[in-house]
Amino acid sequence: MVKRIEMEVEQGGTNEVRPDFFREPPVKYTGGDLPWQWEEDGMIATRTGAWAAPGCHDGCGVIVYTDKETGKFVKVEGDEESPYYQGRLCARCIALKEAVYHPDRVLYPMKRDPKDRGRADKWERVTWDEAYALIKSKFDAIKAESGAKSVVFHLGTGRGTAPYMTRLQYAFGSVQYAYMLSGNSCYVPRVAACNVLMGTYCVPDCSQNHFDRYEHEGWVPPKNIFVWGNNPLVSNADGNLGHWVVDCMKRGSKLVVVDPKLTWLAAKADLWLQIRCGTDSALALAMGKYIVENDLYDHEFVESWCYGFEEYYEATREWTLERAAEVTWIPEEKIARAARMMAEKPTSVQWGLALDMTMECLAGSAAVVDLWSITGQIDIPGGMVTVHQPFNIQTWNPPDPAECLTIEEQKTRIGGEDFPALKYSGVVLTQADMTVDQMLTNRPYKIRANWIQSTNPLSCTAQEPNTRMEQAYKNAEFNVMVDPFMTPTAQACCDVFLPVCMYPERNGIRSIYYHVQTTNKACQALGESKSDMEICWELGRQWNDTLWPGETLEEFFTFTMKETGMSFEEAREENWIYPEYHYEKFRTGEQRPDGNLGFNTPTGRIELYSTLFGQWGQKPVPHYAEPPYSPNQVPERFDRDEYLEKYPLIMTTGARQWASFHSEHRQIPHLRALHPNPEFEIAPETAERYGVKQGDWCWIENHLGRVQLKANVQPVLDPSTISLDHAWWFPERNPEDEGAGCYDTYVSNANVIIEAGCGESGFGNNCKSHMCRVYPCEPEEIIGDTDMDKIVERFAMNEELV
Ligand SMILES: Nc1nc2c(c(=O)[nH]1)N[C@H]1C(S)=C(S)[C@@H](COP(=O)(O)OP(=O)(O)OC[C@H]3O[C@@H](n4cnc5c(=O)[nH]c(N)nc54)[C@H](O)[C@@H]3O)O[C@H]1N2
Ligand SMILES: Nc1nc2c(c(=O)[nH]1)N[C@H]1C(S)=C(S)[C@@H](COP(=O)(O)OP(=O)(O)OC[C@H]3O[C@@H](n4cnc5c(=O)[nH]c(N)nc54)[C@H](O)[C@@H]3O)O[C@H]1N2
Ligand code: SF4
Ligand SMILES: [Mo]
Hints:
Elements (H helix, E strand, L loop, with lengths): L27 E3 L6 E4 L2 E8 L9 E8 L5 E6 L12 H4 L1 H5 L9 E2 L12 E2 L2 H19 L4 E5 L6 H11 L4 E2 L9 H11 L2 E4 L19 E5 L3 H4 L6 H9 L3 E5 L5 H5 L2 E3 L6 H14 L5 H7 E2 L1 H8 L4 H8 L3 H12 L3 E5 L9 H14 L9 E4 L13 H4 L2 H5 L20 H10 L7 E5 L3 H5 L3 H10 L3 E6 L4 H6 L2 E4 L8 E5 L2 E5 L12 H12 L9 H8 L7 H7 L1 E4 L26 E2 L3 H5 L24 H7 L2 E5 L15 H6 L4 E4 L1 H6 L7 E6 L2 E9 L7 E4 L45 E7 L11 H7 L8
Parallel strand pairs: 8-9, 8-17, 11-12, 11-15, 12-13, 14-23, 17-18, 18-19, 24-28, 25-27
Antiparallel strand pairs: 1-22, 2-3, 3-4, 4-5, 6-7, 6-19, 10-16, 20-21, 21-22, 24-29, 25-28, 26-27, 26-29
Helix pairs in contact: 4-21, 5-14, 9-12, 9-13, 9-14, 12-13, 17-19
Bound molecules: ligand MGD (2 copies), iron/sulfur cluster (SF4) and molybdenum atom.
Iron/sulfur cluster binds next to helix 1.
C-alpha cells in the first residue's frame, strides 16, 4: 500500500526561518469608513490596536476615547469595523482605565544601589538622561572588560517590544536574547516544528486573511476544527481570536477538542478527547497510523508534495488504537473517530501551548504537522493556511542578527551551537536553561548584567524561581527593569527601573500574519513614562545610530514598514492594510524564495521524514516520550514506587484565566474581583479522597517544595489530575518584607514545584505534566482570602491623575 515517493519537485529549499523573501502581491486592501481619529460627544475618538501594556497577545482593534478639553483617557470600546476583531472586547481591555490611572504605576525612572536590592524604600528618582548615562557607562565598561556577550537581554511573552529590544541589544553588540521559560516552551517550538518540516508556518483558515472575512468569495469554513491543547476563547493566543472558532461553528464547522479539561469549547464540541497530560504525541501518531491504514490520506498531496511517507508510516506502526488508548486514556473508538474527522476536507487545527509543554515537544508538534500534511489540508480554503509577516514588517520577530552582528558575535549565543533547532523558530533566542545555568555558575564566563523588559520571571516565566532564577539575577552586578509596574523581579533583583507607558499612550505598529495596523497615541503618557519603542530608540541610537534610520521614532516606523510603500502617518490614515491572500502557494512558486514549486525545505517538500532533524542527531520522524514525571515513570534518581505513592496526582498548570494575563492585572480591582485568589481545579471524588472541600486552602506539594492555592472542586477533570493557576503574586502585600519575599512571590507560584529542564532539542518542559500531592493547610498556615474591600481601597484610581 505504501510506496516510496520519487522526487518530482525542485529540491534545495533553504528552510529560511525569516521569510523576508516573500514579495507581496501588488494588491492591498485598506479599510474602515471612519478615519483614524474623530470627535464624538465632547471626546476625541482614536482608533488603535490594543497590544500592550497592559499585556495581551492579540492587539485587538479598539477605539480609545479621550476628553476633548483635558486629553485624558475616558474609555475604550471595541472597533466594530475592524475585520479582525469586529468589535469584541474582553474584560482586561474593558478595565483599562484602572490600569492607566493605577496608583502603583511607576511614573519616573529610578535607581538603587545594588547592595539595597530587595529594599522598596531605597529607590531614588533620577532623570532619563541620568538613567541612560548610568546604563550606558555600566554596559560599556562590561563590554570593554568582558565582551558584549556578558550582558543578557530578557523579554517575556509576545508583545510589541521584541523587535525594538533586540535592535537595542544588537546596537550594543550582544546576541544574548533570552526568554526565561524552561525549554523556551511557548509557541517557538511549534513554529520551529513547522519551519523545519514545512519551511513555513501555518494557521487554521477562519477567513482572517481576507479583509471581507466570512463574506470572502472562495473561502469556506473548515468542516472540522481541532482545538488541540489550546483554549482560544480565553487566551486569544498567537494570532488567533477565540471568537473565530465560534464564528466558524455558527457556519457549520464541527469541533474536536483535545484537552484534559472540560473547557467551555469542549462542552460544545462534537468530540471531546479527554487526554492524559503530556501524551498528545501518542494520540497524533495513532491517528496517523489509522489514517494511513484506512487509506484516508490524500494520495495526490502525499505523492507530489511530501517527503518520507514510508518512514513516517513506519514510525506510527506501533501506535495501534489499543496502545494509544492505554497511553492517552482516550477510548479507542474516539481516537478512530478523530482520525476520520481529521481526514475530511477541509479540516484545520487550532493548536496551543500544551503541545510546547512536554519535554519532547518538537517531535509532538511534528506529529500534528504530519496529520494535516498527509490529509492534504495545506493552504486550501478552510484548511491550514501558510502565513508570514505582511510586508516583512518586523513587529513580532526581531531583526535578523546577521544584519547587525558579526559571525563571531552571533556564535556566542548561549545554546546556539548546542541546539540548532532553536533558530528555526524565527526568534533567535538563547536556550533558557543553559542561560540560567551560566548566570548561576559563571561558566564558561560570567553574565555580568541583565536588561529585563516586559517579563517577570520570578512570579511567572521561570521554573524553580526561588532556587534558580532569583540567584541567577542576583549573581549579576547590574540589572535594569523596564515595566509599567513594580514587580517582584524588579524589587528583588534590579538596580535601575525604567517606567513604560500604556498602549493608549504610545505609537507603534501592530501586525501579525494577516494585516498591518498602526497603534495610535490617544493621550499623553503619565508622569515621565515612555513607550518601549522610545526607550529602545533613544538608548539604541547612542550605541549605533545606523541601526535606527530616521530622525524621529515615527520616521523609524516608516523605515520598518517600507514595503507597504506608505509612511507611518499614511498607514494610520488607512486604518488597516491587508495584502491579497493566495491559496495553494506551493503550486505556484510563491512558497519559495527561488520561485520554484513546492516548499522551502531541503527536499522541496513537506518533510514527514525531517532531513534537518536527522542532521542534528535527532530522530527524523515523530515519536512519543513519556513525561519525566508521570504515573508510569519518574527520573531514575528516585525510587519509583515510593515517589508515586507520595505524589500520586498529575498536575497541569497555567490554563489561562479571563481576568489576568500571566502575572499581570492582579492589581486591577475589577479583574481581581473576577478571580480573587490563586486556585486549583480538582475533581469531586479526588477532593473527597484527600479531605478537600470547595474553597479550602490546600498545599500542593512534591519533591521541590509546596505552594498554597484554594480548591475549586469541579467535575471537569479526570480524578487523576489537578490543574493549577500560574503566575500568582500579591501586589497588595507590603513590599517592606525584603528581597524575594516581597509580595509573597513564592507562596502560591506553581513554578516553585515545577522542575526546570528541557528536552533533547533544547525545547520543552514539564509545566503541563508533573506529579504532586494535595492536602488542606493547617488553619495557622493559611494565607487567607483576598479582602476585596481592601483591594478596592488600596488600588483606587489615582484621583490626582484621572
Ligand atoms: N507554571 C507555568 N508557568 C508559566 C506558564 C504556564 O503555563 N505554567 N506559561 C509560560 C508562558 S507560555 C509564558 S509566555 C510566560 C510569560 O511570562 P512573562 O512574559 O514574564 O509574563 P507577564 O507576567 O505577562 O509579563 C511580565 C511583565 O511585563 C509587563 N508588561 C506588560 N506589557 C508591557 C509592555 O508593553 N512593555 C513592558 N516593558 N512591560 C510590559 C507587566 O507589567 C509584567 O510585569 O510564563 C510562563 N510561565
Ligand atoms: N487571558 C489570558 N490570555 C493569554 C495569556 C494569559 O496569561 N491570560 N497568556 C498568553 C500566552 S503567553 C500564551 S502562550 C497563550 C497560551 O494559551 P493556550 O494555548 O490556550 O494555553 P493554556 O490556556 O495554558 O492551555 C490550553 C489548554 O490546554 C489544556 N491542557 C493542559 N495540559 C494539557 C495536555 O497535556 N494536553 C492537552 N492537549 N491539553 C492540555 C488546558 O486544560 C487548557 O484548556 O495564551 C496567551 N493568552
Ligand atoms: S484579546 Fe481581549 S484583552 Fe487582548 S487586546 Fe483583545 S480585547 Fe483586549
Ligand atoms: Mo506564552
